[in-house]
Amino acid sequence: MGRTVSVSVPASSANLGPGFDCMAAAIGLWLHLEVEETGHFAVEHDLPLPTDRSNVVVQAFERLRPADGLTFRVRTDVPLAGGLGSSATAIVAGLAAAAALDGGATTPDALLPLAVDIEGHPDNVSAALHGGFILSDGTWTVRIDPPPGLEAVFVVPDEAVRTAAARAVLPQHVPLEDATKNVAWAAALAIGLERGDLDVVAHSLRDVLHQPHRAALFPRSAALIDDHATLGALGATVSGAGPTVMLWVRSEDAPAVVDAATARAAGWAQVLHAPFAAEGARVGVGAARA
């Protein structure tokens, strides 16, 4: 047997309310990839995903080098649909594994341009590479450490909403007043996260650019956002294009919020509790086996 590369990549939640298409957070749910030089091509997993070269992990890998003679083993804690960056985890994992096998750089700066090119937007892949909270326009990234005492509870509906459908309902033009509000809330959110001021964070989890327009696509998720306070959360945001909702919670309140959300989601969604991940993609290379 030849060398083995192991890559772990965190999930991510994009937009974070006011930060449409430019803010995201790394989440402590992980995709794990092992690529081994076995002399034959194979993709091994127990997921409802392709096991040939159309697999997103392999497609990303082959942007840097051929996958011939390699076995890909994938396991993941990340829901495959709903807005937790599953495609970003796969893209970053494939790119990082290919770069590592070639002895190339696996740093965020090295991998981000190609990851953005494949994914089409910078937020999820930036968070997956850098960890923490990020602000990005695709050419630069500002990273903020997760503040202590802040965690996430996710309500992940069983019925997915296609990203294309969620994009299609957004207006092409917005009032200047609405844009100004979102800029102010996004700036305040970044400041609150940097300072660890959860009161400022809670005040800033607002949006008028995308969430109201998408509410009709997932009314039960939208109702959770409206009712976040009754669930015990600081606030709630649509994760990515939805329909998953991220409840922002103080650590000490998390168990009670999980219980309340589980009761509300019975029969139509699963509830996941996860920390924000300070670390981005991790890469390790093992020596060839005898």
Your description of this structure?
The protein has 290 residues and is α+β, with helices and mostly antiparallel strands. It folds into 2 domains: 4-144 and 277-286, Ribosomal Protein S5, domain 2 (2-Layer Sandwich); 150-275, GHMP kinase, C-terminal domain (Alpha-Beta Plaits), CATH 3.30.70.890. Helix content is 36%, strand content 26%. The protein has helices at residues 56-61, 86-101, 108-119, 123-130, 163-168, 176-195, 198-204, 211-214, 219-226, 228-231, 254-265, and strands spanning 4-14, 23-37, 42-44, 70-76, 133-136, 141-144, 150-157, 235-238, 245-250, 269-275, 282-286. The strands form 2 sheets. Strands 1, 2, 3, 4, 5, 6 and 11 form a 7-stranded mixed β-sheet that branches. This is Homoserine kinase. One of its GO terms (molecular function) is ATP binding. It is found in: Cytoplasm.
Write the layout of secondary structure elements.
Blueprint: E1 4-14, E2 23-37, E3 42-44, H1 56-61, E4 70-76, H2 86-101, H3 108-119, H4 123-130, E5 133-136, E6 141-144, E7 150-157, H5 163-168, H6 176-195, H7 198-204, H8 211-214, H9 219-226, H10 228-231, E8 235-238, E9 245-250, H11 254-265, E10 269-275, E11 282-286
Parallel strand pairs: 3-4
Antiparallel strand pairs: 1-2, 1-11, 2-4, 2-5, 5-6, 7-9, 7-10, 8-9
Helix pairs in contact: 2-3, 2-4, 3-4, 6-7
